[in-house]
Amino acid sequence: MPAGSDPAPGAACETVGVGSAASSGHPGGGASALSLVGAAFGYDGVTRVERLTLEVPAGTAVALIGPNGSGKSTLLRGILGLAELTAGEVRVLGETPRRARRFVGTLPQADTRDANLPLTLRQVVTMGLYRSRGALRPIGRDGRTAVSGALERVGLAALARRRFGELSGGQQQRGILARALVSDPRLLLLDEPFNGLDRENREALLGLVRGLREEGRTVIVSTHDLEIAQEACTHVLLLSSGHEADQPGHPAAFGPLDEALTLAAVQHAFQDTTVELDHHTVTTTRETE
Ligand SMILES: Nc1ncnc2c1ncn2[C@@H]1O[C@H](COP(=O)(O)OP(=O)(O)OP(=O)(O)O)[C@@H](O)[C@H]1O
């Protein structure tokens, strides 16, 4: 799966798994969960992530990896139609982002949500139904069954009546995943879901990502943790933030994990950061022009 990208000027490393253009050139192919052609996203007319040309096949799990500010959250928001498309084309499940939204489940970054909402876990998960049904329509028996099933799936059925804010960070994270799952989404966008999790919650979440993919759903999960990519994902999209200050993020590599997650590509993406790959710590140094 090629990704449109040019190596940043002065970058010494090769970017393996990076091509020059999408093979089909046509967004919205039947087997594509996400199709980007020269896409760029940003805010108020300012591009924050660009040069995205790639096709994410349905039923894959993509690890979205890149340094702080490389545009991971912006890309996820763009897929939802919440960040501005400043160039190119985007198709989500063959539709525009807005039309596809009801088939997409999301887990936003933990620091963007209000854990003090006076709601029980069950009520938080029920909110996940509103996207597809609207908030005013009665939930009904099938809705209640879906909520119970989602809670069961993330292992929190016993805590359904507990106030959300009283749950541990890991339990809250699994609760939000249940909220994303309750509408039976075909595509899941998980923004840094592993941050701050203890080993038990991390393992539970890794198992869930693997299970979702095995069911034929597509998962895009942003993470700083390369081990997570290796343990749960089939594909990787590496974003680089480039050399210049304020340069938009852009892809350093995209493809199946074993082809695209190479040391060279990781070095390109994380230019002056210590990164880990295959349990080896690697320190890369920014090239100067
Ligand atoms: N709502 C917004 N309005 C304007 N600029 C924004 C907004 N959100 C993010 N940005 C800017 O877009 C750029 C990319 O940010 P983004 O949060 O997408 O990066 P990220 O890779 O997800 O970073 P992190 O790993 O720190 O979460 C940054 O320069 C950021 O300041």
From TrEMBL:
InterPro entries registered for this protein in UniProt: AAA+_ATPase, ABC_transporter-like_ATP-bd, Metal_Ion_Import_ABC, P-loop_NTPase
Keywords: ATP-binding, Nucleotide-binding, Transport
Domain of life (superkingdom): Bacteria
Recorded family membership: Belongs to the ABC transporter superfamily.
Domain ABC transporter stretches: 34-266
GO molecular function, one term: ATP binding
Organism: Leucobacter ruminantium
Name of the protein in question: ABC transporter ATP-binding protein
